[in-house]
Amino acid sequence: MPDGTAYRWPTRRQANLAGLALCALMMAYAFFVQYVEHLSPCNMCMLQRFGVVAVGAAFLLAALHNPGRAGAVVYALLIAVTAGATAATSGRQVWMQAQPLGSLPSCGADFWTMLDMFPVTEVVTRILKGGAECQVITWSLFGLSMAAWVMLAVAAIGAAGIVANLSLERQR
């Protein structure tokens, strides 16, 4: 630093709060696109939203708990699992979008109707197997669909959360 003060890395709690904030921003943008831009989320998008909320919840728990070394490893694992599952779900949609339109069967009714009709495990299985509705790209930026951006963002946030929880110091 020019004034002679040393740079201080953020604490683990600060990094976890930053991860939570990024997940909240992702959800805020999802709601903006849905309610202001009037783009209805497909079933895969709904699964990804739940995943982003789960990643955010993992960051929130880690920030509130502010654990010691062993607890930080547990939170790093929790962040890895939730971010990995969300990135995998997004990756599955990116794969679906790369298939020729109409080549995938419909996953059926909308997300909330399916939850009324089937157990959660069957709803998730149906959505991951099907996907004609999820093939359509209604939003893109720099040639990447929203699912691709979610995949990249969650992977980056998750990786940063893992590194932060395994390497940064606990706030006193």
Task: Give me a quick take on this structure.
The protein has seven helices and two strands; from the N terminus they run ααααααββα. The chain is mainly alpha-helical and 172 residues long.
Key terms for this structure?
7 helices; 172 residues; 2 strands; two-stranded antiparallel sheet; Bromodomain-like; mainly alpha
Could you walk me through the main structural features you see in this protein, from its secondary elements to its overall organization?
This protein is mostly helical. Helices cover 70% and strands 2% of the residues. The model has no long low-confidence stretch (mean pLDDT 87).
Structural class: mainly alpha
Strand order of the largest sheet: 1-2
Helical region count? 7
Output mean pLDDT: 87
CATH architecture: Up-down Bundle
Q: Would you report the number of β strands?
A: 2
Radius of gyration: 18 Å
Top-tier CATH class: Mainly Alpha
Q: Level of helix content?
A: 55-70%
- Low-confidence stretches are none
Strand content: under 5%
Oligomer: single chain
Write the H/E string, N to C. HHHHHHEEH
Count of individual domains: 1
Q: In CATH terms, what is the fold-level topology?
A: Bromodomain-like
Largest sheet properties: 2 strands, antiparallel
**CATH evolutionary superfamily:** DsbB-like
For the terminal residues, how far apart are their CA atoms?
Answer: 25 Å
The gross shape turns out to be elongated
